[in-house]
Structure formats: structure tokens, C-alpha cells
Amino acid sequence: MRDLLRIYNVLELFKRKKYCTKEEILEAVGKSEDKTISYETWNRLRKRMDLDYGFEVIYDKAQDMSYLLEHHKVDYGQLMGMIHHFKTADLLQRYVKGDKRMIDHLDFEEGLKVGQESHLNDLQEAMLKCESVVITHQGYTKATASEITVNPLYFKQYQNRWYLIAESVKDKEFRSFGMDRIHDVLSIGKKFKSRLEEAKKAYSQIVGVTLGDKSTKLQDVVILFEPDQKPYLESLKLHHSQTVLEDTEHRYKIKITVKPNYELQQQIQKFGSLAEVLEGEWECY
Are 130 and 152 in contact, with CB atoms under 8 Å apart? Predict the structure, then answer.
């Protein structure tokens, strides 16, 4: 965890400045611990950043400064987002450890039920080994649970709930399963060829976790909002493709490139009369 926080601070530094001095890098490395870090410690971290994550810090002798080169081993945004969550959890843990009264000042949404954490371990092990599993899952609209054999691919968070994204062995379709609705996980030891990148691409083209009809095309959806909704849309984007088309005193218009689905419709309808879909081969009721 300590090294991840150090990496986060270094990447944040290079996000702000293309070229950085040795002193600036050392300060960034020790930022979370509020102490001076030795060059030897930084050198070990630098090697790990390159080997494990594909972020190479290169020294430019002519300028006596360093710059960052990405080899795309991992997704920059996803890594930074993950570490940000870890940072927040670590801070809250320290608050509670320092003063137990802080428990009364924290209120979390309900997450995984007690005992379901073990499913995370079983599924992540199956993901890394590329082994199929049988999960016992009860959908939100189902009265009883059923078994389904899947190839687990990755975990996805949406609206503070975690989902398993997997390939159904039976029909080879990608599906999402709420982690809080998985009752049991059984490994069957059968290897599969991972379609992780294909699944991530498919889910990156939608809002939420419902892929919907295969015939739905990837399209530009233009939405007009009342200008006072701008702060909310900037802090919680509808989709990672969101771009601003118009930003005036009276109009705030954005464009997202997605395959429209029910969850997109839900998100837009939350704004009520403050939002209007202007373009897109799709009707938001």
C-alpha cells in the first residue's frame, strides 16, 4: 500500500509537470509520509513503476530533469482511480483507529454481506488462473437462485455496488452479476481463453452494467442541461466519453458516445425537466 501511494504521488507530479527535478520527485515520493525519502528508495520505486506498471521515469542529462514514458502495461486512469479508493479507505481507517468516536461520524452504503468477501477471493483466483467456475446467483427480480457456469473476467463498480463481469460458458455472451447476489462459487478447474479486453471494450461503450440489445449501435447522444447542473456533471460524468459542446450562461450541452441502454435512460431521467436529449438514434422516455 505504501508503494502504491508513493507511485500515485509521482504520477500526479508528472501529470502537472512534463519535466521534474530530482528534488521534486523525492518530495512527491515522501509526500504521504511527510518525510524526506532517500534517492536509493526512489530508485527502487522507479524500477517497480517500470517493471510492474509500465511507467518509466527517464533522466534527461542535458536538462538535468526527468520525464515520464508510458508503456501501457496498465490503464493510467484505472490505476489512479484504484489507488485513490485505497487512499480514502486508509485515511478513514486511521481516523477510526485514532479516535473510536469517528465511527459515529461515518455512514456507508450497504456493501457485501458478511461472508461474501470469500467470493472475491475465489473469483479473483479463478480470473488469474483463467479457470471456469459455477456460481449460484439470484437475480434482483428472481424468487430463487440458480447455478450458471461462467468464465470470470473482472470486477466492475457501478453506483457503489460491485459486479462480476463474466462470459457465460453456455452462450458465450458477456454478463454482469451483482456480487451481493452471488451465494456460492465453485471452481471446476477447467481452463478458458480470456476475453478480458473484449469484455472491457463492450462495457466501456455503455453506462452501467447492462449491455442490452446487440443491434444497438454506438452513437453520439447530445443532451442539453440547465446551466446550474454543470457542477454535478463535471464531478460525476454520465460517461467517460463526455465532452462539452456548449457552455454559456443559459445553456450547458454535452455529448457522450455510447450504446444507449436502460441505465443511461435512468441517469438522464434523474434530472427531470432540467435535461433534454437533442440528438441520438434513440428515444429517452
Answer: no
Each residue's pLDDT tens digit, 229-261: 999 999 989 999 999 999 999 999 999 999 999
**Assigned CATH class of 1-107:** mainly alpha
Identify the CATH number of the domain defined by range 117-194.
Answer: 2.30.30.100
Pairwise CA distance, residues 151 & 71, whole Å = 28
State the Cα–Cα distance between residues 176 and 199, nearest whole angstrom.
11
The per-residue pLDDT for range 26-81, each reduced to its tens digit, is 999 988 787 778 889 999 999 999 998 899 999 999 999 999 998 877 777 878 87
Instruction: State which H helix or E strand residue 93 sits in.
Output: helix 76-98
Q: How far apart are CA 102 and CA 143, in angstroms?
A: 39
Which H/E stretch holds residue 182?
A: strand 182-191
β-sheet bridge partners, residue 184: 136
Q: Which CATH number fits domain 219-279: 2.40.50, 3.30.70, 3.10.20, 2.60.40?
A: 3.30.70
**Distances in Å between the alpha carbon of 85 and those of 28, 40, 79, 81?**
19, 28, 10, 6
